[in-house]
Design goal:
Pfam families: NLPC_P60. This protein is of the alpha+beta class. About 65% of the residues lie in helices and about 5% in strands.
Length: about 425
């Protein structure tokens, strides 16, 4: 009895074998869960890797300097274009002046030619008159009317009366000859005057044409030089724009590297927050939320893809996301909670109703935070993020961006849900 009583007392003080096994199993499971949740707890914090804020500012300053160079070159190019227009107008004026001088020269040559023709005709008539007078003089000589008038009157043919007849004819012919000579001399004088005027005009037009040709050449040379200057400036502008492009690419790379470094720092901070917030006494929902938050943090830097994301990870989306493998906001939330064993639809509408709504000041890691165009209207919900603690969330923000950690405190925040599965 004593022995049985002692065994009974011993049994009452000692846990049963089943209880021991249950305690061991619980402890083992808790240890495994904590090892999954808190791998970063043993890691020592390190400095933020990647470019510093000073590096980013320096690269942005280089971009501004090179942009200023391009701007100055564009101003110079605009000035050169204006000068080119002015010189082009000057060249056109010179060319039209050249055309005018050429026309004047053509007309002057025509007048000169006509004057020469009239002068030649006058010379021809003079020669005919001179030939006629010479023939008449010969006839007078043959008729003895060109010698001593007294002897001709006494012994000439027809006697005195014949002499009088011949004398009248000689006077008439002499007057005719004198008139013809006067006309020829006048024609010769006019022809000489026209010839002189034509020669003077021709010389003047030749000089004017030479001046016009020179003006044309000078203007065209100026335009050619200006065009060469424009080409040179344009080449310099292209060179500076290439330098600007390289500087912008470098600045963008530095900025992206800085953002990735900051995102990694935010992720470490979020993991640390998760590590510090999860305790063995938390409910299963807290463990699930922590798992969902860690799953989302795993994909920081993944491209946004409209319609992208499955329970297995990033995927190609639809429409604008058809060529991009990644997540959209609800796709990331579906994936993250899928890793925690809670299966959500790929839609913020049903994700909003997937569990109880949580006050913002009571959020835990993994809770889904929602945003709406009109915070007073649930039908305008358009975005969801996964809360990671300290007022921050993991989100796939918009096309062209990447999965990142950001603040939940925005004007379009409408509420939060804790998926219950």
């Amino acid at each position: 009895m004593a022995s049985g009583t002692a065994e009974t007392r011993h049994a009452s003080r000692s846990p049963s074998r089943g209880a021991v096994l249950r305690l061991v199993a619980f402890t083992t499971g808790l240890t495994m869960g904590m090892s999954l949740l808190c791998p970063a707890a043993t890691a020592r914090p390190t400095a933020t890797p990647g470019p510093s804020a000073r590096d980013v500012k320096r690269s942005e300053r280089e971009v501004r300097e090179k942009a200023a160079e391009v701007g100055r070159t564009k101003v110079e190019l605009a000035r050169a274009d204006g000068e080119l227009d002015r010189l082009a107008v000057a060249a056109e004026v010179a060319i039209e002046r050249y055309h005018g001088e050429q026309l004047k020269l053509q007309r002057s040559r025509q007048v000169y030619g006509e004057t020469l023709a009239r002068s030649a005709e006058a010379d021809r008539r003079l020669e005919e008159t001179q030939a006629e007078l010479a023939s008449f003089a010969a006839q007078i000589y043959r008729d003895n009317t060109g010698y001593d008038q007294m002897s001709s009157a006494l012994v000439g043919h027809g006697g005195p009366q014949g002499f009088m007849d011949r004398a009248g004819m000689v006077e008439m012919l002499t007057k005719r000859r004198t008139a013809m000579v006067e006309r020829v001399e006048a024609a010769k004088t006019v022809a000489d005057l026209f010839r002189h005027q034509a020669q003077t005009a021709s010389q003047e037009q030749t000089v004017a044409t030479s001046r016009a040709d020179e003006a044309k050449r000078v203007a065209q040379d100026a335009v050619a030089r200006q065009q060469a200057s424009v080409h040179r400036i344009e080449a310099e502008k292209r060179r500076l724009e290439r330098r600007l492009g390289r500087a912008q690419e470098h600045a963008a790379r530095v900025k992206r590297a800085r953002e990735r470094a900051l995102e990694k720092a935010e992720a470490r901070k979020a993991r640390a927050t998760l590590t510090n917030s999860v305790r063995p006494v938390l409910a299963v929902s807290a463990v699930r939320g922590a798992i969902a938050a860690r799953a989302a943090l795993k994909w920081l830097g993944t491209p946004y893809s409209w319609g992208g994301g499955t329970v297995a990870g990033p995927s190609y989306g639809v429409a604008q996301g058809a060529e991009t493998q990644g997540f959209d906001c609800s796709g990331l939330a579906m994936y993250a909670w899928g890793k925690a064993g809670v299966y959500l639809d790929h839609w913020t509408g049903t994700q909003w109703t997937s569990g109880p709504h949580i006050p913002i000041d009571a959020l835990r890691p993994g809770d889904l935070v929602f945003f709406a165009r009109d915070p007073s209207d649930l039908n305008t919900i358009h975005h969801v993020g996964i809360y990671v603690g300290d007022g921050r969330m993991v989100e796939a923000p918009y096309t062209g961006a990447r999965v990142r950690v950001s603040s939940i405190h925005r004007s379009d925040l409408i509420g939060a849900t804790r998926p219950s599965g």
